[in-house]
C-alpha cells in the first residue's frame, strides 16, 4: 500500500532539499506537483504499488485557490484509502530573508522580500490545522535535517542500504577520478605487467590473482585496508552521506587496482552494503 508524504512550507524553508533526502531513503519524489494532477498520480500509485510504495511530493501553496483545492485533494486521498502525512516546513522570517539574500533568488510573489514572506505566511494560515508534523529549519543544517526526516519516516540512518558505494579501479597514467571520495594507491605491489605471461591479462584473470595475492605485502595491506573501510563507513552514513566513491589506482589500471577493487567489492557485499564496481581503464593497453 502506498505511503504518501505531502511536503508543504514557505519558500526557502528547505522543501526541495527535503525531497532530495526522501529520495536518498528510496522514495519516489516529485517537487512542486500541481494540486490538480495529484488525484491522477494517486491512481498511478495504486495501480503500481511495488514501484510507488513510498512517495513524497511537495506542493506549491502560493497557487490561487490552493487551500480549497488542497482540502478537496485530502478528501480524494481518503476516498482512495491512501495513507498520507502532511509535513510543514517553516523558518523564521529573518532566516528566510538571509537565505534569499545569499542565494540572490527573487521571491515567487514578486514583492519586496520581507513583504512577500509575510504575504506567503498569511496565505498559509489555513493549512496549519491539517498538518501532521511541523519542522522548523531555522537552525538545522543538512545533516540535522536528514536525522529529523529519518526519525519522521521511521528508518534507522545507520542502515547500510542507504549508502550507495561505487568502487572504481583506475590507472594513474590516465588521471585520478574527479568524483572519488577515497583514493588509494596500490603501486607498492609488484606489477604483473612485467611478467611476460601476465602482461596482457587483467586483475580478473586467475593467474594475475595468484601472482598478486601471494605477495605478503598484499595480504597485510588488504587486511588493514578492508577493516579500515568497514570501520569508517557507518560514520559516513551518520554524517548523511548517501553516495561514496572509493577509487583504487595502479599504474595502468589493469592488474593490481582491478584485483584490489574486486576483492573490496566482494568484502563489502558480504557486509551487506550496496556496491557498484567499475574498472575504468581495464581496456587500456599499457601497464
Word description of this protein:
With 287 residues, the protein is α/β, with parallel strands linked by helices. It has 2 domains: 3-153, 3-Layer(aba) Sandwich (Rossmann fold); 160-279, no CATH class. It has helices at residues 15-24, 38-47, 66-79, 93-103, 113-123, 142-153, 206-213, 216-238, 256-270; strands spanning 3-9, 28-30, 54-58, 83-90, 133-136, 164-171, 182-185, 243-250, 274-279. The strands form 2 sheets. A 5-stranded parallel sheet has the order 2-3-1-4-5, with helices on one face. Helix 2 (38-47) links the parallel strand 2 (28-30) and strand 3 (54-58). Helix 1 (15-24) packs across helix 6 and helix 4 packs across helix 5 (113-123). The longest helix has 23 residues, at 216-238. It is elongated. The protein starts with a strand and ends in an 8-residue tail after the last strand. The model has no long low-confidence stretch (mean pLDDT 88).
Amino acid at each position: 500500500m502506498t505511503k504518501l508524504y505531502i511536503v508543504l512550507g514557505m519558500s526557502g524553508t528547505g522543501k526541495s532539499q527535503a525531497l532530495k533526502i526522501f529520495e536518498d531513503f528510496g522514495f519516489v519524489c516529485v517537487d512542486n506537483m500541481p494540486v490538480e494532477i495529484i488525484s491522477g498520480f494517486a491512481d498511478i500509485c495504486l495501480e503500481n504499488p511495488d514501484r510507488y510504495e513510498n512517495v513524497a511530493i511537495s506542493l506549491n501553496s502560493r497557487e490561487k485557490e490552493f487551500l480549497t483545492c488542497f482540502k478537496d485533494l485530502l478528501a480524494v486521498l481518503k476516498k482512495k484509502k491512501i495513507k498520507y502525512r502532511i509535513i510543514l516546513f517553516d523558518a523564521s522570517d529573518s532566516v528566510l530573508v538571509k537565505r534569499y539574500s545569499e542565494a540572490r533568488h527573487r521571491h515567487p510573489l514578486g514583492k519586496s522580500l520581507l513583504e512577500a514572506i509575510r504575504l506567503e505566511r498569511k496565505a498559509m494560515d489555513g493549512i496549519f490545522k491539517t498538518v501532521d508534523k511541523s519542522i522548523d529549519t531555522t537552525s538545522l543544517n543538512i545533516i540535522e535535517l536528514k536525522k529529523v526526516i529519518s526519525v519522521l519516516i521511521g528508518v534507522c540512518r545507520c542502515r547500510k542500504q542507504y549508502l550507495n558505494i561505487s568502487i572504481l579501479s583506475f590507472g594513474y597514467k590516465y588521471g585520478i577520478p574527479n568524483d572519488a571520495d577515497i583514493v588509494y594507491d596500490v603501486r607498492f605491489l609488484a606489477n604483473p605487467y612485467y611478467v611476460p605471461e601476465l602482461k596482457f591479462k587483467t586483475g580478473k584473470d586467475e593467474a594475475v590473482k595468484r601472482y598478486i595475492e601471494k605477495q605478503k605485502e598484499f595480504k597485510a595491506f588488504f587486511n588493514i585496508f578492508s577493516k579500515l573501510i568497514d570501520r569508517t563507513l557507518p560514520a559516513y552514513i551518520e554524517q548523511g552521506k548517501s553516495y561514496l566513491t572509493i577509487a583504487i589506482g595502479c599504474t595502468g589500471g589493469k592488474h593490481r587496482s582491478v584485483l584490489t577493487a574486486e576483492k573490496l567489492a566482494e568484502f563489502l557485499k558480504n557486509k551487506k552494503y550496496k556496491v557498484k564496481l567499475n574498472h575504468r581503464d581495464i581496456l587500456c593497453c599499457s601497464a
